[in-house]
Write a structure and sequence with these properties.
The chain is α+β, with helices and mostly antiparallel strands and about 850 residues long. The chain is about 35% helix and about 20% strand. The protein is globular, with a radius of gyration of 35 Å. It binds one RNA strand of 85 nucleotides through helix 8, strand 11, strand 15, helix 11 and strand 30.
Amino acid sequence: MADEKEQLRYDPAAIEQKWQQRWAADPTLYAAEPATSNKPKYYVLEMLPYPSGQLHMGHVRNYAIGDALARQMWMRGYNVLHPMGWDAFGLPAENAALKNNTPPREWTLGNIAAMKRQFKRLGMGFDWATEVTTCLPDYYRWNQWFFLRMYEKGLAYRKKSKVNWCPECATVLANEQVIDGCCWRHEDTKVEQRDLVQWFFRITAYAQELLEGLDKLDGWPEKVRTMQRNWIGRSEGTEVDFFLEEIKQRSGTRDQGLEKQRIRVFTTRVDTIFGATSVQLAPEHPLVKAFTAEDADLKEKVDELLAQQKTAREAGDLGAIDKHGVATGRFAVNPYSGERVPIWVANYILMDYGTGAIMSVPAHDERDFEFATKYGIEIRQVIKPLEEADGSNALPFVSEDGMLVNSGEYNGLSCVQAQKKLQEVATRGQFGEEKVIFRLKDWGVSRQRYWGTPIPMIHCERDGLVAVPDDQLPVILPEKIEITQQGGSPLGRVPDFVNTTCPKCGGPARRETDTMDTFVDSSWYFYRYTDAKNAKAPFDPAIVKYWFPIDQYIGGVEHAILHLIYSRFWTKVMRDLGLVENDEPTKRLFTQGMVIKDGAKMSKSKGNVVSPDDMVARYGADSARMYSLFAAPPDRDLDWQEDGVAGVSRFLGRVWRIVTKYAPVARTASAQTVDAPAGLSLTLLRKLHKTIAKVTQDFEGRWHFNTDVAAIMELVNEMQDADAQLASGEVAAPVVRELLRTLVLLLAPFAPFLAAELWEELGEDGAILRAPWPKSDPSLAKEDEIEIPVQINGKLVTVVRVAAGADPGTMETAALVNDKVRDRIAGKTLVKVIAVPGRAVNLVVK
RNA sequence: GCGGAAGUGGUGAAAUGGCAAACACACCAGCCUUAGGAGCUGGCGCCCAAAAGGCUUGCGGGUUCAAGUCCCGCCUUCCGCACCA
């Protein structure tokens, strides 16, 4: 027989193995009830991981937060949906295939199996029956289905666009795979810009709604909302046409087709237009092509500008290049003043923002000022500051607090008045209009890669672009494919895939060989969870209606723009397709901080990676999880210190010992509460009920789980200090019962294995997850005597004890009779007494 | 440059405008022991030999009876955006 000391040892490995098996045997434990349930629903979701094969500490933290919340909501009687899935498409699988000669599918599914084991070992309460794996046809067929719906509505379209191209990989790279202008796999290889025909989703059609919707997302961090606002980049202004001046003198003829043309510019400051002393075109502007076609010298200079811009763009540092420009020798006419201004081409004008052309107003724009100074272009002030303080008249003057001067009939108007008036005139004269533009661009979804959703389109020689009919979905991604480093879409080299027949004419045709961006997969996966097995539709709208919007979404802030804006877009498209009723996918969003070590993000190159498996093996899953909640509030970065994990593990050991030690008392004790507890029983019950109140409150709002763990530690410390009295029976058995049961219940969201074990130890045979969350008794949660700080002139002097509800007068008296206070105010005049009930007494003396 | 967040002991951190440093880690002293990465007791912001006392939340001002907390200015760090017309 093992001796007593052995028995009194907390053995997380044994406990966790036991419960892992029990939970695996009960698939209903973490399953949501059907949408017909009359319990209130709660959908808690953590962002799904990419199946790299290994969970990292950031995952442990993310899922520990979500799991704690889910468990607490289960205990509070909610119908909880807490699903998990895999963001399983993407380039790493192809890279792994190259490196290890393993097919991407095999590699990915193997990784999923490994990570699922890790999740189970960590005790995460996911409903695996609703698991979603985005690389499987039963999921990605619905990507294709949505694509076709968008195509029908004109929300999916093709156009030529610039892409990042790695000459070494001979493939397109996503923006996030371009690091400092180089390929992420070939860090000395500069990424090139190439023009390719690409598929786009018309997210810009929803720009205004995506922007306005942010105001209503008050359960989102302000930071994320701000980032999205900036990303969408709404800008109000005016489009105005400058007329291209007729050129008659050149070889006696007119430039055919040019003289009637206009140069449309976008400006937010049309009020400054009388100060426009040049028009600037982006080097790629179509008009520039027309100019250079007949001017070899100009062409050479423009090509140079293009090259500069390209280099800068490839270096990802467009803001840093010096402003260069070249005069075209042409002139444009200001539509308001009739003034003739030179047309320049400049490297700082972006073709893909606004109209690719600007009016340059050096006196009232920093960039134009810099450019004009450099090239000696006239700088003409047309806005006068309202109040000419010292130096406020210095140029460039960019404020809108001003009045128009040198602006003909508009002189004397304020900037805002002038903008309105000038817009009216432009509209009437049909040379311009009020205009709102967005920085947001349409979402390029084509990828020249293998491991992604095939785009369900067919190219027919006769019928052109033809959509794959719904009844031919899914377009299956072929598995027999050799992954090579050759350029172009890998699917293009699979004849069985490419060659098909046209759905319209039945003639020979070719399939589209591009695949979809993996952000498509993650844009709607959380809808699929609610009805994951549906073979007829992406989901049943009635079920989605029950579960949506998601009550709480939890993930890293690195997805603030991409995933979180794409999924908002997708929801709005689905709403307009009549599939969902909610405008937004997620009511509340929580972005947790990073896990760092030694002051830096964990990374292989820094050698500071901590493996979850390792932590679990040494200290158990409960300790690893609880430490990740205890070490910092969840929204802040967390500094991983292994000694801290050991500390939590020791704490759980103390819990284990004290509960197992007194479990026999608790098991046989009456479930009746003690009517009038006194002495130590009362003290302990007070601490207990204060702790319940604190933890419960935190779950409801603040989420400072670190302080909740600390509060539970305090409770255990106090119980441990009472060890002798517990042992002697001085604390009544029903009180012991309540203390131990409640302690275990409070621990259940944070340390689920230990809580399950101790719950059983206390004689319970049902799942602790189904036990009701404890309620704090307000009469027990408050003290009847409290300590009040006493200040003299705001400085702390001492502390006095008063009854909890003491009124200011009583508090004042208690303070004044205190010896220390009397000494300090002797010989002085008491000017004023501030006594705030329950808070403090401050004596103002002279 | 613009926007956001944060600066508190040796470390992670705590503190509805009301006792700064709870809870832990590390460290120090001691106890226990079947030597376990175990358990228990005590100490642990700074100044002062100790006590008494004084000082202390990045820096400087302010509001207030009272400021880590609110306001203004500055410094530092991190994050995002950045020639967006």
